[in-house]
Amino acid sequence: MSRIRNTSNAPALPWIPRWMLALAALLAAAAFPLLVEYGVIQTVWIRVGTRALVYVLLAVGLNLIMGETGMLNLGYIAFFAIGAYTTALFSSPRFGFEVPFWPLLVMSAGLAMLAGYLVGLPSLRLRGDYLAIVTLAFGEVTRYTFNNWESVTNGPGGIPGIYRPTVFGYLVERPIEFYYLILVFVVLAVLLVANLKNSRVGRAWNALREDEIAAEAAGIHGMRAKMVALVISAAIAGVAGSLFAYYQQFINPTYFVFMQSVIIVCMIVLGGLGSIPGAVLGAVVLDSLPEFTRQSFSSWLPAIFGRDFMAGWPDFLRTFFLDFDQYRMLIVGLVIVVMVIFRPEGLIPDALWRREVHQEDPREQEHTLQTLFDIEEGKQDLEV
Amino acid sequence: MESAPRALLEFRKVHTHYGRIEVLKSIDCRVNEGEIVCLLGGNASGKSTTMKTVLGIVRPTTGDVLFDGKVVNNVRTSERIKRGIATVPENRRLFPHLTVLENLEMGAYTRSDKQGIAEDLERVFEFFPKVHERRTQRAGTLSGGEQQMVAFGRALMSKPRLVIMDEPSMGLAPALVEQAFEIIQAINEQGVTIFVVEQNAHAALSIANRGYVLQTGRVVIEGDAKDLLANEELRRAYLGEM
């Protein structure tokens, strides 16, 4: 079976095997903090990198539900929030709990999974727009709950002073340590999702996306298969939330607004729905773009072209580049529109999605012509 | 004395509703092990609903559907497939963006015996050389006739005891229609029981053992296929007597 899946998952870059690309990406990610350590780039980049890794986790997790089963989930950030709040409540001075790292990570993932299960029970019967609306509502309800349940969550004030985690007897404290800790979980999540994609349940997801009734008629328990995807993706978001809370040491409801869900959707659309490398790339690009632009225009480009290279530029252009974060959603929106027009399958497309997006594949024209001739032959037979 | 034939599929006074509209009005019918049974009838007579009721896509409001002697009213579709029902659905419903081979593999989804799956795949390819030729192509790009063969192949991949077919000749060029019925007969000869809905009554009855004729949700005529072929009333109504 795997033999066959592999042919359909032909690499987007045919001259390099995918595992080599993955390894190269992993090495680059592992080497990245060294640039900071040796002063090649500023220390802020380790924070940018760490946050990008959190979003990589989220993008990989959302991709499982959206890319594989085709269910639009606009409230994904809620699972992230549940993971983050679980960790914050049980490892901070707020109630004096100090649950150790591993049990709390499992609790955070577990509660996110439970939430996924409960929201899935009624909503997985829905499709398309309806599912999108229900998940959107779930995301907002979750945020409002954290915002208004002051006795527990401290409302908009958030939860400060989340303790540093001790992992295998090692106190994780410095940003660079968090970077590597989260990178380990990114690798685990990628391996998990890659294996699921090629598993029996992965094939079930793809079949459900293509035609639900035909999938049921092939013996797939549609509800159960979709629930598995939803719960696992919720678990990944829960883990991401827990790590995020530990790293950030402070959370409040503003981290979990609807726009965050939208951005994660944009990340995987940009990278390519159903594609793991696409999700990784989309998350890294979209999350670090504002900082990258700001840095480029405030320090790197001046170093090359002289400090006053923007002197003649109109004001709005200068503020645009220097204060890029303000315009982030504008740019994301533009990028998505351009992508959908010119490369709807994403930057690093998944083979099956590419086939869905491009109904007409030039490589198959030949066969179609043959097919036409076959019908002609059939007619001739009839006349004779 | 010949023992009574064993019913693989049985409908007992099955009523179904879409909302408040009653579609099947007390259907009684049976498909015995090893038979080809065809279900005839005009438009909106309830043929497709009967097929959906067998699969569990539609559930009876009253009455019982039995498969292999057990009531399956509340058994969901995927579980019925596991118990040995396969389908060649109306309009084939292949997975259009999966390759032909992947479509066939989806047919074997409920099975885990790799050896057996590989053997059955070979058998399907032997049966349909054209399908083998097209195996790496995505199913949506195939011609109607080829898609029909893939649909037959996909149904066989689950090693079914009963295959239900909804209008297998629909949309096929006339020369291919004949071929489709030959294939159905050949599948049956391998020991698979077949329940087939057809508009093409003459062709269906000529390969079937028995038949039922539906009219507005009721069985109006039933009997041996050769009697039905000779039935004057039926000839006028459904066989397009010239």
Please give a structural write-up.
The complex is a heterodimer of chains A (about 375) and B (about 240). With about 375 residues, chain A is mainly α. Chain A has a domain of about 260 residues: ABC transporter involved in vitamin B12 uptake, BtuC (Orthogonal Bundle). Chain A is about 70% helix and about 0% strand. Chain A contains 17 helices and two strands. Chain A has a two-stranded antiparallel ribbon with strand order 1-2. In chain A, a hairpin with a 2-residue loop joins strand 1 and strand 2. Chain A is globular. The N terminus and C terminus of chain A are likely disordered. In chain B, the strands form two sheets. Chain B has a six-stranded mixed β-sheet with strand order 6-7-8-3-9-10, sandwiched between helices. Chain B has a four-stranded antiparallel β-sheet with strand order 2-1-4-5, covered by helices on one side. In chain B, helix 7 links the parallel strand 7 and strand 8. With about 240 residues, chain B is an alpha/beta fold. In chain B, helix 3 runs parallel beside helix 6. Chain B is about 40% helix and about 25% strand. Chain B folds into two domains: about 170 residues, Rossmann fold (3-Layer(aba) Sandwich); about 70 residues, no CATH class. The model of chain B has no long low-confidence stretch (mean pLDDT about 90).
| Helical/strand content category of chain B | alpha/beta
Question: Based on the structure given, which CATH architecture of one domain in chain A is correct?
Answer: Orthogonal Bundle
- Using the coordinates above, name the CATH class of one domain in chain A: Mainly Alpha
CATH superfamily of the largest domain in chain B: P-loop containing nucleotide triphosphate hydrolases
Instruction: Classify the fold: give the CATH topology of one domain in chain A.
Output: ABC transporter involved in vitamin B12 uptake, BtuC
What strand order characterises the main sheet of chain A? 1-2
Could you report the average pLDDT of chain A, rounded to the nearest whole number? 86
- Major beta sheet of chain A, specifics? 2 strands, antiparallel
The domain tally of chain B reads: 2
**What is the general shape of chain B?**
globular
Oligomerization category of the chains in this entry: heterodimer
Strand element count of chain A: 2
